Amino acid sequence: MLSKVQLRLQFLVLLWGFTGLFGKLVTISALPMVWFRMSIAAFVIFIYLKLKKQQIKVSSKHLIQLLLIGGIVGLHWFTFYQSIKVSNVAIALSTLSLGALFTSIIEPILFKRKVVISEILLSLVVSGCVIWIFKASPEYKLGIIYGVICSFLSALFSVLNSTFKEQVKPANITFYEMIGGFLTINILMIVFQPDTFSEVINVGWANFMWLALLAIVFTAFAQIEFVNLYKYFSPYTILLNVNLEPIYGIILASIVFGESEKMTPVFYIATGIMILSIIVNGIIKNKFPQFNK
């Protein structure tokens, strides 16, 4: 049987699986969605830091870096929900699996390390699966494109966040990144979609309640819980479990939304191969360190 702490980890991954559903439950556009998610989450994390009496201030250098990374996070969430708006939850979640592919490309460039052979093989498998999905679901082309961009941005901010290590506390990282993302989304709305500010003002109670739930439980709480679980698990174990997010999300979306989330058998086979290959790659790299060279 799973221990209490293992159940907490699975519950956290399940929470992340739910986040895609909000793309359909909330009826406003993607940019205003992210505007609410980041602003409410920043406020809640600020209260959390105050209650815990944690130092909020960071150095000027770290502040600028975190705000910029937060902008990437904001763009990541925008492209994620935009992918759902123009296609469906299943497409957006399946393309998230590309994160491992992009990480294998970004890490060697930023950290100036050698490319790992197993990562090249993983890249080929994942790329082939995405092409397979693309050909099998041409009607979702735009959603797949947004999803691929979303996955790249996810890998980028994850790698950039890893450079901080012990320099800044995780809760502070999240707080300033939420602010940076909020500022970025405001700029995008002003420049490209000024009309969407009317959606912010006239959000409606039903949408606001969904957005508050998304920001408080599925963003602020989930991030704090994510940080706490590092006391009990290695980063490898946590990240391996996070790969289950698309599976949970696709199943949940199918249950909640029914027919609109049903895809072709090819989609499920390709997605399954992608996720399985990522998990197997992680296990091999953990068990056989020589494959990391």
From TrEMBL:
It holds the Pfam family EamA. One of its GO terms (cellular component) is membrane. The chain crosses the membrane at residues 7-28, 34-51, 63-80, 86-106, 115-134, 140-161, 173-192, 204-224, 236-257, 263-284. It comes from Faecalibacter rhinopitheci. This is EamA family transporter. InterPro entries: EamA_dom (IPR000620), EmrE-like (IPR037185). Residues 13-132, 142-280 form the EamA domain. SUPFAM superfamilies: Multidrug resistance efflux transporter EmrE. Keywords: Membrane, Transmembrane, Transmembrane helix.
